[in-house]
Amino acid sequence: MSLPTRIVPVVCALLYRLKQADEERHSVTASKSAYDLLVSLRHEDASNFANLWEFPGGKVEEGETHAQALTRECREELDVHIEVTDNKCVHAIHFEKSEEGVRTQYSVFFYWARMKFDGQVAKALASQKVAWVHYDDLKTREFCPGDETLIEELAKGSIAPPA
Predict the structure, then answer these.
(1) Which of 57-61, 100-104, 124-128 has the lowest mean pLDDT?
(2) Residue 69 belongs to what H/E stretch?
(3) Of the four, 45, 60, 78, 108, which is 20 to 30 A from 68 by CA?
(4) pTM for this prediction
């Protein structure tokens, strides 16, 4: 007999900012060395993935689009207003977890996003801390399982913010 299955869509923001020199030149091209990404460190007492780094986001609630869920999650977790810069999912991972007689299938979708207003400062409302990290430094942090391929693609430059 198979376990009942629950499907949970999750969205994550690849929340980026252009390096200051590019912003001053009003450049619209984001090379792999010209931007940082916002990441957060999960609480040490989190039931899953404690003390691991992650990209901000969370579960999509019923009736929400992915962009609406990202906007809500970033407001709740970071106290910032964002805009999804490209409605095309740039990376996805899928995994299963069985607990308490239920199998849960997670689908995690990643989207590019930027701060909607200048001067906003992300706060660690739902994590230990947040940090803006250059793509090279992502590899020096321990991320939640499944993010390895995304981090490799970001480091190679095969995934980069929209121009």
Answers:
(1) 100-104
(2) helix 66-78
(3) 45
(4) 0.87
